[in-house]
Amino acid sequence: MIKFFRNKRKSIIKQGKTQEYIKYALGEIVLVVIGILIALKISNWNESIQIKKEEVKTLKSLSEELNGNLTEFNSIFNAQLTRNESLQTVLFIDIKNQPISYLDSLITNNVESYSYNPSTGIYNSMINSGKIELISNDELKKRVAKLNDEVKDYQEHEDEITEFTKAHLETYFIENFNIPPAVLSKLRARTKQEERVDMATYVKTFSSSEINSMYILLLKKMGRLIEEGQNLRKEYTGLIEALEAEIALHRN
Q1: Could you tell me which residues come within 8 angstroms of residue 9 by beta carbon, excluding any fewer than 6 positions away?
Q2: How far apart are CA 118 and CA 71, in angstroms?
Q3: pTM of the predicted model, to two decimals?
Q4: 20 to 30 A from 30, CA-CA: which of 16, 187, 193, 195?
């Protein structure tokens, strides 16, 4: 093709047709420009396809990680809800009328601490590498970027509760309870004498204003944690749904 155009130009020059040569040369230039524009468009189109593929791949990986994190979070958060009910029970039941084994379980649940530690490998990699910019949906991109802050807010409340529990409840029980660990862990039964002593300790403990104040303060902290947890669960669920919708949109 190039040889054909070259021969054509030579033929026109030999014939001395200057005006026709100029027109022909301009025509060649226009054809070259059109060819370049078409090539650029095809290149841009191919690049756009690759970017979309990379975006979908990123969205899928993030969705899978968040689904796993939501499952883990639900397990931890449900345990926190159970603990909160246990704390409330201590304040509102008549200790004297409860089996001592039930009181043992309450104490265990009251001081149990839980910590949510999500997997963040995909998320951190996406943020640190700048791949978050692959997300073409600006609203979705903002929600993804904010997720880490929302998780940290929840974790800060968890840490606060754990510190309070260790500094107050655990310390109090260590100093005021002499229940053998083997009994609490149900490795052996109490003797009759131990049962009388431990029951008296429970009644005295949960009748004191000191322990009641600790529980009230802890329940206030738990209330804030539960509110944060409900918000985080809602955000996880909504974000996963948004990611799946965006993935489906790119497939169509």
Answers
A1: 21, 24, 25, 28
A2: 10
A3: 0.78
A4: 16
What is the distance between the alpha carbons of residues 116 and 137, in angstroms, rounded to a whole number?
Answer: 29
User: Phi and psi at residue 190, in whole multiples of 5°?
Assistant: -75, 155
Is pLDDT at 252 greater than 80 in this prediction? no
Report the SS3 class of residue 178. Answer: coil
Nearest Cα to Cα of residue 98 among 202, 210, 185: 202
By CB atoms closer than 10 A (0-12, 13-18, 19+), residue 76 is: middle
pLDDT digits (tens, 9 = 90+) for 133-176: 988 899 999 999 999 999 999 999 999 999 999 999 989 988 88
Query: d(Cα 132, Cα 142) in Å, to the nearest integer?
Result: 10
Amino acid (one-letter) located at 164: F
Distance CA 186, CA 172 (A): 22
Domain definitions of the chain by residue range = 2-251
By percentage, how much of the chain surpasses pLDDT 70?
Answer: 81
Q: Are 117 and 108 in contact (CB under 8 A)?
A: no
CA–CA distance from 120 to each of 64, 79, 144 (Å)?
Answer: 11, 22, 12
The 3 state secondary structure assigned to 87-150 is HHHHHHCCHHHCCHHHHHHHHHHHHCCCCCCCCCHHHHHHHHHCHHHHCCCHHHHHHHHHHHHH
The dihedral sign for the CA sequence 97, 103, 107, 110: negative
